Amino acid sequence: NMKELAKPAMEAVSSGKIKFYPERWTKTYFHWMENIQDWCISRQIWWGHRIPAWYNRDNNDEIYVGPGKPDKPGRWEQEEDVLDTWFSSWLWPFSIMGWPEKTADLEYFYPTATLVTGPDIIFFWVARMIMAGCEFMKEIPFKNVYFTSIIRDEQGRKLSKSLGNSPDPLDVIAQYGADALRFSIIYIAPVGMDIKYSNEKCEIGRNFANKLWNACRFRRMQGDVTATFKALDAETLANLSDDEKWMLGKLDNLVNSVQTYLNDFQFHSATHDIYELVWSEFCDWFIEAEKQPLRKGGADKERAMKVLDYALYRILRVLHPFMPFITEELAHQMGFLGEEESIMYEEFPESDGLFAANSEIMLADGKFDLVRAGRALKTNYNLADGRKVNFYLKAADDAKLAYLQTNADSLIHLLNAAEINIALQDYDSAANGAAPSGVCDLGTIYMPLAGLVDVAEEKAKLEKQKAELEKWINGTKARLNNANFVAKAPAQVVADTRAALAQNEEKLERTLSLLKDLA
After folding, report:
1. Could you give the CA distance from residue 31 to residue 269 in angstroms, rounded to a whole number?
2. Cα–Cα distance for residue pair 248/261, rounded to 1 Å
């Protein structure tokens, strides 16, 4: 009879003593517990705990229940059925630590902090462990329950040996690496939602590991580890560049967000924040920006190396729970740890308060947006990355003008520009010729075309492209508006036609935009 056992177990969750992550699974829990049925605990299977009941065959099958055969006269035979698997399992939180004896392990570890399991066994196991803990230990067995995603194949089926759709993790590790598998699974698994898995998705983690490996290799090429990788000295902090303040601020924000996500069991969100900072902000922008002071040498290079070391040491520690092997290896390669030390014993990073809420973050974000816009202008006109071009920057206001002027050398380096003019005035197209532009928060970036392209020839080429696209789009729209075509053509053909239409409409928009720039 389960009704009385269910009451304290329901109270444990409704009172918040036990919390579910995600919280929505409490509804499933209460649905089961409020409609609980009696439990037949016997099973006719070969393996399991044999039910401790004996029958006296000499006395009308008198029943005795106890830990061993009774010391009474008669021919006693034990029940051949075994206990339900879940009946054995509901004792797990305390039976593995010596219960019913009051062992030191039981006193120390019970209750545990967190249970990690799948939502498909909320009632079979989670609820029953809570009931057993409240009944036999008079205390809840754990404080948190984190429900993982159910991993399914590309068709949405649960991974199963019988279906043959479950890859061998060892084969995946051999191909992609243990860290890549671990990181990718967390990265693609939103909290409490099932995921569709394929081995190819492990490329996310493998490529990310390669990116981090190459960043550390680049730093090692500059020289030995600096002595201040754990804490930057006052002189370095006083002479930081705007980009370095930006990176330290971004790192501080990352440390805070990851700590919050870990506390809330939002591992998926933590990996996304780490991925974005390491891949885009640190590797793609910061390392590229730091190449300038590294090339200058002297005090500039020394400062850049110190900041890179400090940043990498924090990145490796915040990433360690998600990618333990590569972070251990790189921490030793970088010289952050001695031979007998391990990153797993290092302190998890905490906020250092360096520029976390500083305006430098927004200004540097704006600068990198300008660089993106400038690079896009070169791409639109098929200009090679190595081609030196001139740019004109119209700052949005006086404060942003001052910032851009301070960062002129950095902008020239990042844009690979020949020259950049920065001012508050609009670009004078009448005097200087056509110049396509990009608008950003810090201002507008122009790329004068004089000497780069033949404007008349470019206009003629774009006009021809415009006419061809409009003809194709009109013809395709007519086909899609034809009911016979949509009804009789294979569904895939119709879908492909619609996709091609959307693609060419987008191409036409870009063509019209380029023609406008040339006007």
Report:
1. 29
2. 20
* Residues 133/139, Cβ–Cβ less than 8 Å: yes
How far apart are the C-alpha atoms of 222 and 180, rounded to whole Å? 28
Query: Between vectors from CA 292 to CA 288 and to CA 298, what angle results, nearest 5°?
Result: 135
The distance between the two most distant Cα atoms of the chain, rounded to a whole number of Å, is 117
What pTM did the predictor assign?
A: 0.80
The residue whose two tokens read 């040996």 is 161
Question: What residue type is 34 in one-letter code?
Answer: E
Q: Which two tokens stand for residue 290?
A: 């730091």
**What are the start-end ranges of the H helices in 188-233?**
203-221
State the Cα–Cα distance between residues 165 and 153, nearest whole angstrom.
7
Classified as helix, coil or strand, 71 is coil
* Cα 422 from Cα 425, distance rounded (Å): 9
Where do we find the tokens 């891949």?
279
Determine the Cα–Cα distance for residues 268 and 149; give it in Å rounded to an integer.
11
Number of C-beta neighbours around residue 122 at 10 A: 21
Q: Which amino acid is at 93?
A: P
DSSP string, 65-123: ESSS--SSSS-EEE---EE-HHHHHTTHHHHTTTTTS--HHHHHHSSEEEEEE-GGGII
Q: Are 156 and 148 in contact (CB under 8 A)?
A: no
Angle of CA points 126, 127, 130, to nearest 5° = 90
Which distant-in-sequence residues (6+ apart) come within 8 Å of 408 by Cβ?
Answer: 420, 422
The first and second tokens of residue 447, run together, are 């790329």
394 bridge partner residues: 423, 444
403 phi/psi in degrees, rounded to 5: -65, -45
Q: Determine contact, residues 260/276, Cβ cutoff 8 Å.
A: no
Alpha helices in 264-358 (DSSP H): 267-275, 287-296, 298-319, 324-333
pLDDT along the chain (519 residues), means of 10: 96 96 94 95 90 93 92 93 93 94 95 93 96 96 93 86 87 95 91 82 96 97 95 94 93 94 94 96 96 95 97 97 97 96 95 74 92 92 87 93 94 93 90 86 91 75 84 89 86 87 85 76
DSSP state of 112: E
Q: What does the DSSP 8-state code read for residue 62? A: E
If you write DSSP's letter for every residue of 390-430 in order, what string do you get?
Answer: EEEEEESSHHHHHHHHHTHHHHHHHHT-SEEEEESSPP-HH
297 within 8 A of 188, measured Cβ to Cβ: no
Strands lying side by side in the sheet with 437-439: 419-423, 390-395, 443-446, 437-439
Distance (Å, rounded) from C-alpha 327 to C-alpha 189? Answer: 22
What is the spatial distance between Cα 75 and Cα 189, in angstroms, rounded to a whole number?
Answer: 58
Q: Are 393 and 436 within 8 A, CB to CB?
A: no
